[in-house]
Recover the amino acids of this structure.
């Protein structure tokens, strides 16, 4: 049968065996967009979950921090600017002066963003009005981090000093994507230190699961420490579920637990677990890789982001969900050989020094985390030169853990086949050729799951 498969920033035709099972990626919902985004946010602020309205919570002399997701989030609806302006309006009703409000980008170990880039998501008006009261979080700035102690399981909790020093922190979360984000992830990742983040960002813990999510179990423990040390009502959340990347379906405001639970309940009603999408698991899993990564926002893709972080990571969840143990995986991508050494300062060293010799992320962490995360040149580039934190570079290798589930990976259509071989994958000129080679391994009657991912673009 003839089909279309995503290939970077476009779709290309492909001929597939008739017995192929076409599977949705498990990301799309049937949710309808709201007609009035501002009205939806006003309603959420007027009737928050587990908290009184903002205008009744605050006092005239309070210092307030408004924190917000950074541009890596796949949201292209005007949530940031709309919500932040309405929040400021409510604060002013309660007597809070604008001069006592700070805007804080929760970029965690992601790179810091320029004022021009931030203007693309929160609007030029807010950037100009707040001036240098608009800042990016720094996970290595010891003077502006506060250590709150350890969680019940012994995990360090260390967050931005503004959260501890402010009378109220309001966090604008622009998307809940399955079980991956929202809740305490906003504070205990987005506004946390490397010492804190390393506990829940491991190859084992990071998950999109909406049930029994280990990462969020750790984050909930950390959140309990934040509430115990700072007070239960010091954090006010805004959570968002999108109808699609361009439009909002619903917004909730209020307590951290209450808003995340409302968003999760809605997501569960819309999205079944990926493991239940196919009745039987397949011998071959096939999908194209779009020209997209959250870490390419205002930047470019590179082979690590394309083949590992997006290819095996964000879009590779289907491998274990839909593929049998020992399955063959076929990725389709032009995989351009481009690098931005300013934004991704560690990636070329990881590509040239680590990946030719190590493909086990657990071993990579053991051997290289301490070195990378204490290298002065990499920390300087994170703190002052708009580069991703060195630990984040190590984290991009985590999806290699999926190689334990497969017998081999084919990459069809790469412009430079040597990039594919560099990772131990096998390049082919076409998708059809890759299917033939996979069938030679899995058998002529091997079952094939074709996951139809859409064309996606990073923020430019």
């Amino acid at each position: 049968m003839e089909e279309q498969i995503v290939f970077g920033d476009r779709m290309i035709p492909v001929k597939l065996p008739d017995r192929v099972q076409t599977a949705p990626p498990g990301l799309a919902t049937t949710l309808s967009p709201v007609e009035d985004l501002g009205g939806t946010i006003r309603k959420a602020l007027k009737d928050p979950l587990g908290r009184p309205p903002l205008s009744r919570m605050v006092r005239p002399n309070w210092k307030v921090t408004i924190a917000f997701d950074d541009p890596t989030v796949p949201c292209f609806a005007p949530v940031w600017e709309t919500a932040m302006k309405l929040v400021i309006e409510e604060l002013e009703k309660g007597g809070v002066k604008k001069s006592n409000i700070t805007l804080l980008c929760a970029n965690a170990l992601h790179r810091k963003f320029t004022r021009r880039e931030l203007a693309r998501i929160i609007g030029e008006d807010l950037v100009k009005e707040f001036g240098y009261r608009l800042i990016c979080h720094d996970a290595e700035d010891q003077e502006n981090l506060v250590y709150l102690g350890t969680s019940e399981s012994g995990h360090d909790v260390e967050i931005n000093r503004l959260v501890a020093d402010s009378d109220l922190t309001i966090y604008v979360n622009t998307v809940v994507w399955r079980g991956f984000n929202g809740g305490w992830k906003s504070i205990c990742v987005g506004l946390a230190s490397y010492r804190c983040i390393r506990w829940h960002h491991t190859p084992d813990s990071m998950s999109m699961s909406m049930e029994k999510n280990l990462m969020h179990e750790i984050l909930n423990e950390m959140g309990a420490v934040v509430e115990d040390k700072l007070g239960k009502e010091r954090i006010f959340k805004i959570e968002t579920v999108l109808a699609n990347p361009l439009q909002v379906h619903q917004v909730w405001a209020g307590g951290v637990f209450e808003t995340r639970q409302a968003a999760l309940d809605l997501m569960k009603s819309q999205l079944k677990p990926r493991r239940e999408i196919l009745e039987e698991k397949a011998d071959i899993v096939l999908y194209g890789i779009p020209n997209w990564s959250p870490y390419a926002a205002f930047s470019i893709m590179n082979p690590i982001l394309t083949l590992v972080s997006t290819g095996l990571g964000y879009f590779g969840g289907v491998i274990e969900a839909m593929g049998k143990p020992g399955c063959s995986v076929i990725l389709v991508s032009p995989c351009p050989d481009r690098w931005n050494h300013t934004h991704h300062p560690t990636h070329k060293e990881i590509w040239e020094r680590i990946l030719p010799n190590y493909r086990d992320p657990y071993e990579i962490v053991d051997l290289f985390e301490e070195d990378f995360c204490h290298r002065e040149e990499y920390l300087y580039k994170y703190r002052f030169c708009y580069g991703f934190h060195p630990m984040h570079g190590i984290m991009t290798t985590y999806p290699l853990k999926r190689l334990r589930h497969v017998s081999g990976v084919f990459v069809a259509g790469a412009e430079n086949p040597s990039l594919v071989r560099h990772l131990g994958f096998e390049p082919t000129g076409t998708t059809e050729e890759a299917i033939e080679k996979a069938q030679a391994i899995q058998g002529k009657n091997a079952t094939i799951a074709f996951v139809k991912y859409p064309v996606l673009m990073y923020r430019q």
Summary: Residues 214-230 form the longest helix (17 residues). The chain is about 35% helix and 20% strand. The two ends are 35 Å apart (CA to CA).
